[in-house]
Amino acid sequence: MNYPERVLIKEVGPRDGLQNEKVFLPTQTKIDWINQLSKTGLSYIEITSFVNPKWIPALSDCYEVAKGITREPGVTYAALVPNMKGLEKALLADVDEVAVFMSASDTHNKKNINKSIEETFPVLEETIREAKASGKKVRGYLSTVFGCPYEGHVSPEQAEKVTTKLLEMGVYEVSLGDTIGVGNPRQVESNLNQWTASIPKENLALHFHNTRGMALANTLVGMSAGITTIDGSLGGLGGCPYAKGASGNLATDDLIHMLSEMGIDSGIDLGSLVNAGHFIETSLEKPLISHQMEIARAQKAEQTS
């Protein structure tokens, strides 16, 4: 396998990681956590989601968080927006970049957005156009590209069709999401070979969930296929509120450890990242599930025993 010399990690923990939490994390705690993440070497942090708080109450303080963080030079602070209303609020908060989202499977799209895929395109097209007119780059998320909790198999042709449409509408990159963690390395290899035959690799990113323990293996295959942008969530925090059984995201800290051991540069300091992990798991009053955090807790317990 051929691997890249450097990988860009996009940290989605403050958004994708926290959106499922049942207990509302205080606004200042979120701000403090993002400020810690900003000092780890991360160059991209998705800080919140400007979605109707009725749907994502855990992120109802999106504006306050975006305005309250300390912005470090060289770090992009992004936020998810569903439509024009969310975009307007995100622009008022002056986020650096926005992301739009939809699904490759129609049923999941309806459960998530309450619209069919075809009905979603005009909404996102307007949002993308207005965001770019305001000087903001726009990223796209595409869920369920390797499988859907309602429809099962999703054809690579369907995922390719929606990805191409999003790029045509003006997003600079589509993050391909394995929302319920059903993808396997052979499937990832086959699909990426098909997709990159018509879509430039630099316009694609990967967003794996670790529901079945496949996230790192799938990431390796993605990197060997030439994809160099990977989403991660510190400690494996997160999931999908519309996909039962969808446990945490690919853990950023486990990914950084693997890359470091392989001699692949990420620019991120693992020690600082683990410290930020300690902060958020203490705040949430539950342990993060990544291997690096488990090791760090064990080491800390041994030192204090």
Structure characterization notes:
Keywords: Lyase, Metal-binding. The protein has helices spanning about 15, 25-35, 60-70, 85-90, 105-115, 115-135, 155-170, 185-195, 215-225, 250-260, 270-285, 290-305; strands spanning about 10, 45-50, 75-80, 95-105, 135-145, 175-180, 205-210, 230. With about 300 residues, the chain is α/β, with parallel strands linked by helices. It has a 6-stranded parallel sheet with strand order 2-3-4-5-6-7. Strands 1-8 form a two-stranded parallel sheet. Strand 5 (about 135-145), helix 7 (about 155-170) and strand 6 (about 175-180) form a beta-alpha-beta unit. Helix 2 runs antiparallel to helix 11 (about 270-285), helix 6 runs parallel beside helix 7 (about 155-170) and helix 8 runs parallel beside helix 9 (about 215-225). The model has no long low-confidence stretch (mean pLDDT about 95).
* CATH topology group: TIM Barrel
Overall outline:
globular
Radius of gyration: 18 Å
How many individual helices? 12
The low-confidence parts are none
Number of strands: 8
Hey, roughly how much beta strand do the residues contain? 5-15%
Whole-number mean pLDDT: 96
Topology at a glance:
Layout: E1 8-11, H1 13-17, H2 27-37, E2 44-49, H3 62-68, E3 76-80, H4 84-92, E4 97-103, H5 106-113, H6 117-133, E5 137-143, H7 156-169, E6 173-178, H8 185-195, E7 204-208, H9 215-224, E8 229-232, H10 252-262, H11 270-284, H12 291-304
Parallel strand pairs: 1-8, 2-3, 3-4, 4-5, 5-6, 6-7
Compact description:
The protein is α/β, with parallel strands linked by helices and 305 residues long. It has helices at residues 13-17, 27-37, 62-68, 84-92, 106-113, 117-133, 156-169, 185-195, 215-224, 252-262, 270-284, 291-304; strands at residues 8-11, 44-49, 76-80, 97-103, 137-143, 173-178, 204-208, 229-232.
